[in-house]
Each structure stands twice: as C-alpha cells, then as structure tokens.
Amino acid sequence: MLVFSTSDKGGTGRSVTSCNLAYRLCMSGRNVAYVDFDFGSPTAGALFEISAVERGVPNDVGLHSYLLGETGVAARIDVRTASDRQALRRMGPRAGKLVLLPGDLGGAEFLTADEGVVSRCAELLLTLEHEFKVIIVDLSAGRSVALQLALKATALPQLQSFTARWLVYHRWTRQHILAANGLVHGPHGLMQMGKECGHDPAALLESVRYVRTAVPPTTKETPRQAKGGPPAKDGPPPAKDGTNAKQGPVDLRPAQTAWLLEQNAALKRLASANQLGASTMLGETPVEPVLQWREQVILDMDVDAKIANAATVDAYTELALRLLNEATWERF
Ligand SMILES: Nc1ncnc2c1ncn2[C@@H]1O[C@H](COP(=O)(O)OP(=O)(O)O)[C@@H](O)[C@H]1O
Ligand SMILES: [Mg+2]
C-alpha cells in the first residue's frame, strides 16, 4: 500500500505523525518503508534519531540524486540498526522492518516533475511495493512538485493496480481547515492535478482522508452539557491522574471551557462544510506535550515513564488500524 502524506501548510505535524504511524505499523508486524519526499527539508532521519542522516544523507546517494538519475539506487537505512535510540533498535521479534529512504543533505525542491524523474519515481515505488506492506511517502507541503510527482507516478500503468492512499494533515483551526480543503479541491489542488495526470476523479477522492493533528483539549463534556445544558459551575472534575479522559491536564476556567466547546462545535461545522467532516477523517491526534518540545517517535516506554500521554500512543495506534482497515476506505 502506498500512503502519501500531504498538507497545505508546513508545521502541520505531517512528518511527526507519519513517522509515528510508520513506527506503530512496524510494531504491529508490518514491513514499512518511509520515503522522504519533503525535498526542501528532509527531516525523517532526525525523527528516527539517526544522527548520521539528521538532515538528509550525505554524498549524493539520497532520493534527490536517485530521482535525478545521478545514482542508480537510493540509499536505504534500517532504522532498527541505525537509530541512536536504543528502544528503536530493540523493537522485538514481532515487529516488521522499518527502512528509511532519506533525501540528500543539501537537496533542494525539484523545479519540475519531468518524464525521467517520474519514471524513476515509479520504478522506486514499484520496487518498494514488492518488499514492503506499507510505503509512507512524506511529500513537501502545498501544491508542490513532490505532490505532482506522486500523482504522475501513480497514474502510470505499472502502478495503477496498487492501492494508493492520500492523507491530508491539518491542524484543528479555521485557517488549516480551509487550507486543507484548498489543497484537495482548490485550483491546482490534488483533485485538479490528479485529473490532469490521468486519475479517475471519483476513485482519487475515495482514497483521500484527513488527519487532524495536535487537537487541543476542550475538556470532557459533563452529562448536563451533553444534554444541551450549561457547563457545570466548576467544570468537569479531573480524573485521578490529573488528566481528563482524552487529553492533557485540566486547568480551564468554566468560561474558557464553554468558549472552547463552542469553538470546537463551530470548527466541526466548518470542517463538514469543507468536505472534511467525520466521514472523511482518518483520525486525530491530541496535543502531546513531548512533541511540543521535541520532534520524535513516542514509544510505549515514554508513556510508562509518564512523560508522554497514553492518549497520544492510542491515537497513532488507531490511525495505523484505520489505515489498514478496508472499511475505512469504503465509498462515503
Ligand atoms: N500531537 C502533537 N502535539 C503537539 N505538537 C505536535 C503534535 N504533532 C506534531 N507536533 C509538533 O508540530 C511541529 C510540526 O510538526 P512537523 O511534523 O514537523 O510538521 P510538518 O511535517 O507538517 O511540517 C513539530 O514541532 C512537532 O513536534
Ligand atoms: Mg515535515
């Protein structure tokens, strides 16, 4: 399965979420390839804590050079051997392979997706398809050449029979919702570009799902609010560990709680009106304090150490399950 990670803006959480998704898929026994097509800023090496390729691979053996035909094969790095993080090297016998195909250190955005680049891209994806259950391709933000390249390659006859999924990452704000809609449905967006590349619009749209990232806590609704009543005077009681069911610490005044719930409802309406409603969602991730400080893969041991929230790992695990579940991709 080819999974293309896209977003209209930078800083949406596309790479961090995609790496965590790759890790969870790998932990569930799948062989996963992570292909860094964020040509302007290849950061996957840093996320998997491989210091040698923190900002791309040196010596012109990365994806840029491969796509330009300057090197016959693209570099591959086994995360389980190369990561500086011990826990990533010891994933256990039941985990699958996790292989990173890094960009070039100092590589730049491509200016055009010409025929040579497209055919080398298709060849690469075809080779990976035979070896890996899931291939996650992190694309540069916006209506980029990377996006065009992916659309052109997947429209070629040799790749048409393979399953391709398009994940659109966005933050849970007004601007991000509108931007995500624009990336898919707007001028020169995914749908228009896809059609021009020869994709069937209906099939392409069916393969698009949205991921809401770093969704802030609104606090759990009290039974009174759920029935349409006002929020309780003192807000919902925090759980024993100081968190509410889904998110981080509860420390909101009643007025803030009421305002946030109202904003959240308005965002839900805006998302539905922009074709980003619940039926087109793959899932969402909660705000994770660790990720606000540091881009990384969240491990179970981070939760056991009470540093990361269990809800974050649950969200990544759920994304992995839904990605692989055929029911997620049924016609809506
Ligand atoms: N669930 C989350 N909670 C808090 N911060 C997050 C979350 N997911 C991602 N981030 C942070 O958001 C920032 C942007 O993420 P990144 O994956 O680099 O975005 P993109 O690839 O879209 O440019 C990073 O600092 C990252 O750690
Ligand atoms: Mg990124």
Please tag this protein with its features:
332 residues; alpha/beta; Rossmann fold; binds adenosine-5'-diphosphate; binds magnesium ion
Question: What is shown here, in short?
Answer:
The chain is an alpha/beta fold.
Would you mind describing this structure in some detail?
It is a single chain. The chain has 332 residues and is an alpha/beta fold. It is built from 16 helices and eight strands. Strands 3-4-2-5-1-6-7-8 form an eight-stranded mixed sheet, with helices on both faces. Helix 1 (14-27) packs across helix 16 (310-324) and helix 6 crosses helix 7. The longest helix is centred in the C-terminal third of the chain and has 20 residues, at 254-273. It starts with a strand and ends in an 8-residue tail after the last helix. Residues 221-229 and 231-249 have low confidence and may be disordered. The site of adenosine-5'-diphosphate has 18 residues, from helix 1, strand 7 and helix 14.
